[in-house]
TrEMBL record:
Native source species: Halioxenophilus aromaticivorans
EC number: 2.7.7.65
UniProt GO BP: cell adhesion involved in single-species biofilm formation; negative regulation of bacterial-type flagellum-dependent cell motility; regulation of DNA-templated transcription
Record protein name field: diguanylate cyclase
Taxonomic superkingdom: Bacteria
Length: 328
């Protein structure tokens, strides 16, 4: 070889027999992108014989190749005389071949790495480019499966399994983040805290299984009512929180009332019983007077307690005269 980045055409010929038999694809094209070499790997996976491919334009044989992108790759090798690569992580394949490997049968197509090599003529000019195709389906499928597993584990770690809302730890982290974001940008953001009225009575009267169904029904209603940008979590037991990004207290009240009315209309059927229930809600719009995310939470709790004290099945908005030390 003349150097690490180029192969002499004379030295290339003795490699042809090897490359015809090993399990990689080999295509050589000239400056007009006409095929000059097409090995058995390419024939086996494309169904196109070397005779059919020979001197045909690569992009006419494979019209599915993204021509502008791949032609630029080839042209850069001709121009610079350096190797170039494509990675499956960036683009799954160059040549769309079906995947026939039984171990990775879940993949519909062959994932590929490709290397583009400059081939020099006797005048030391790059006259051809060799495209070497590696089948990396096994590697790709295993990495994607691992990525999916990690994503699933991450979702499990932040999700309350009963309700599919965020669990308390993750939700409270989001509350902290929104508090800090407000202090940087002062964009409106509001918090709704609510719980199920007389939930202990539901459990005592109907049992814990019907009680769980009530909690699930409320959570489902929250998911159906909130906006995609709203952050909903199960704070604990029968208590929930929703952070409404970009919402002031007035617009948050529309959300809270819509949620309250939808819950009031629910009927949970369990063990032959039809269970009706309501929720009480408290709203606190973030303001400069709130010294921490905990203070913000206490303000929403104070508004929630005001709804409880007012007869339940109500929505109340925090005002400065509400006491923060009264539990609910």
């Amino acid at each position: 070889m003349n150097g690490t980045n180029t192969l002499d055409l004379g030295e290339w010929h003795w490699m042809m027999h090897i490359l015809q038999t090993i399990d990689v694809g080999l295509v050589v094209v000239d400056r007009e992108y006409n095929v000059r070499v097409w090995n058995s790997f390419m024939e086996n996976h494309s169904g196109i014989s070397p005779e059919e491919a020979s001197r045909s334009n690569l992009f006419e044989i494979f019209p599915d190749i993204q021509r502008e992108w791949f032609q630029h790759k080839i042209d850069s090798v001709f121009l610079l005389g350096n190797r170039s690569y494509t990675l499956w992580e960036e683009r799954p394949y160059v040549f769309k071949f079906k995947n026939y490997r039984p171990i990775t049968s879940m993949a519909d197509f062959m994932y590929q790495y490709t290397t583009l090599l400059p081939l020099k003529s006797t005048d030391d000019e790059t006259s051809h480019v060799a495209i070497v195709i590696y089948d990396v389906t096994d590697i790709a499928v295993n990495r994607l499966a691992l990525k999916d597993a990690n994503t699933a584990l991450e979702a499990l770690s932040i999700t309350d399994q009963m309700t599919q809302l965020f669990n308390r730890a993750h939700w409270e982290n989001q509350l902290t983040n929104e508090y800090m974001r407000y202090n940087r940008r002062h964009d409106p953001v509001s918090l709704v805290m609510f719980d199920i009225d007389h939930f202990k009575k539901v459990n005592d009267t109907y049992g814990h299984h019907p009680g769980d169904l009530v909690i699930k029904a409320v959570a489902k209603t929250v998911l159906e009512t909130k906006r995609e940008t709203d952050i909903a979590g199960r704070y604990g037991g029968e208590e929930f929180g929703v952070i409404l990004i970009g919402a002031d207290a007035a617009s948050t009240r529309f959300f809270a009332e819509r949620l309250r009315k939808r819950v009031e209309a629910l009927v949970v059927e369990a063990d032959g019983h039809k269970i009706n229930f309501t929720i009480s809600l408290g709203i606190a719009e973030m303001s400069k007077e709130m010294k921490s995310h905990t203070h913000w939470l206490q303000c929403a709790d104070a508004a929630l307690y005001s709804s409880k004290r007012g007869g339940r099945n109500l929505t109340s908005t925090y005002t400065m005269d509400m006491k923060l030390d009264e539990g609910h």
